[in-house]
Design brief:
About 50% of the residues lie in helices and about 5% in strands. It has about 450 residues and is mainly alpha-helical. The protein has one domain: Alpha/alpha barrel (Glycosyltransferase). The chain has a three-stranded antiparallel sheet with strand order 5-6-9. The two termini are about 40 Å apart. Keywords: Glycosidase, Hydrolase. It comes from Spirilliplanes yamanashiensis. One of its GO terms (biological process) is protein N-linked glycosylation. One of its GO terms (molecular function) is Glc3Man9GlcNAc2 oligosaccharide glucosidase activity.
Length: about 450
């Protein structure tokens, strides 16, 4: 039975949710950075930091900037921003794979405690712009401080974009390639199944390296042992290659172009164009690169037969056969042709994804009608707030205000009813995974503070 929310959040509900979300962010602040959760994710994650900054902008903008600074303090000389920055106060055995396993090269200008060699979607320019935008309502001093933060971040954000659109264009089509499912942020999505099938699954690795995640989380909710063995093998392959991106498709086992990752790359350049105007740089190159990436997404990741965006395996040239939520994320692109916008909305409103008008809940991570749809296993069915937040932005951008409001209401009522969980059951709304998850709380604050709805008093302070 589906959970059907009432039409709109009440003032009492909004106040309660605001207070609980702010409390989660306060609890999860640790030694100068935010952790996604205290138990399962004790370090700093890259795209989590971006979503979290959006919410921190309302309750503690100084922490929003500090969190982004901590992340970009670990940026590699080639411009990559690692997907995890390790906290030296956390023991190696408390998280796997930890810094010892990654064994990244040491550089004088990077923290001694290290990072991973992978990346995640570059949401940080969007986040930085949102934090700056909130400062504009708090006086000249707040604006000046935020402008200084943008000035520090801007060259680092540019270096991140140049790395991704340069060294990571493994297919030579103007698209960024990911080299591990973890880089997508949608770790075990069915979108990667075909490409991952060609990666050897050495289960003996799990005898050498114990999975930490299943010691603290339900194993039936997490990626399978076969998937995890492949994940470890891919890290070993990339590490053995010195984390070098040259000729990736020829030597590395997983090289994939993801529509969501690339849509976020283009969105980052749109945000950088706005940031450039604030810090006195030229916005034109950012707008042009966003245009090129958008055009490449349409040209190479669109499947006309199904009228959906799909991931592409660079090694084989084949598009994924699965309808996954990453195919909806290009909706956030302002330059997306109208026919593609209409097609994405048709997919979102179909029985496969079931906008709240059909299901009473936000959009799930995978096609509800698929035979292997799994209501509990990570990105193979459950609802994630961050992806729905991105989709709502796209709906507003392209004039689907009613659907955006419907999605906002469904997200807020779901979080209020079930808690600030990592993800949610796609039929009942039950909270799954970590119960005090930072980006869920942070994005709840942003949704509550939406200018089209009553703003809690705490947001105006």
């Amino acid at each position: 039975m589906y959970f059907h929310p009432s039409p709109s959040p009440s003032p009492d509900m909004s106040s309660q949710l605001w207070q609980s979300a702010a409390a989660v962010l306060d609890t999860n602040w640790a030694r100068g950075h935010m952790v996604p959760s205290r138990r399962l994710y004790p370090h700093q994650w890259s795209w989590d930091a971006a979503f979290i900054a959006v919410g921190l902008a309302y309750v503690n903008p100084q922490r929003a900037w500090a969190d982004l600074r901590n992340l970009f303090g670990a940026q590699w000389p080639d411009g990559r921003v690692p997907h995890i920055v390790f906290d030296p106060a956390v023991a190696e055995g408390d998280y796997f794979p930890g810094p010892g396993f990654w064994d990244v090269p040491a550089y004088a200008d990077r923290p001694a405690h290290g990072s991973t060699g992978l990346v995640q979607p570059p949401m940080h320019a969007v986040a930085a712009w949102e934090v700056y935008r909130r400062a504009t309502g708090h006086g000249a001093a707040a604006v000046a401080a935020a402008r200084d933060e943008l000035g520090w971040l801007y060259p680092r954000l540019c270096a991140q974009q140049e790395y991704l659109t340069g060294a990571r264009d493994a297919g030579g089509r103007g698209l960024v390639s990911i080299v591990h499912p973890w880089e997508s942020g949608l770790d075990n999505s069915p979108s990667w199944d075909a490409a991952m099938a060609a990666v050897p699954a050495d289960l003996s690795l799990l005898q050498r390296y114990a999975r930490r995640d299943v010691q603290v989380a339900d194993i039936t909710h997490r990626p399978t042992d076969t998937d995890y063995a492949r994940y470890i093998g891919l890290v070993q392959s990339y590490r053995a290659g010195g984390y070098d991106d040259a000729g990736l498709a020829a030597w590395h086992g997983f090289v994939v172009e993801c529509p969501a990752f690339n849509a976020i790359v283009a969105a980052a350049d749109h945000a950088l164009a706005r940031i450039a105007e604030v810090v006195g740089a030229d916005p034109a190159p950012h707008r042009e690169r966003a245009r090129r990436v958008t055009a490449a997404v349409v040209a190479h990741l669109w499947e006309p037969a199904s009228r959906t965006f799909r991931s592409r395996d660079v090694r084989t040239g084949e598009l994924s056969g699965r309808r996954c939520v990453n195919g909806l994320v290009p909706l956030m692109l302002p330059g997306l042709p109208r026919e593609h916008v209409v097609a994405i909305m048709a997919e979102a409103e179909s029985e496969r994804f079931g906008m709240p008008s059909l299901s009473g809940l936000p959009i799930p991570s995978y096609d509800r009608t698929a035979a292997d749809f799994d209501s509990y296993r990570y990105w193979r069915g459950p609802i994630w707030i961050n992806i729905n937040w991105l989709l709502r932005r796209g709906m507003l951008l392209h004039g689907y205000e009613a659907q955006a409001d419907e999605l906002r209401t469904a997200m807020l009522r779901l979080i209020h009813r079930s808690g600030h969980y990592e993800y949610f059951h796609p039929a009942t709304g039950e909270g799954i995974g970590e119960p005090a998850f930072s980006w869920t709380a942070a994005l709840a604050l942003d949704l509550l503070a939406d200018r089209t709805a009553p703003v809690p008093a705490a947001a105006r302070a």
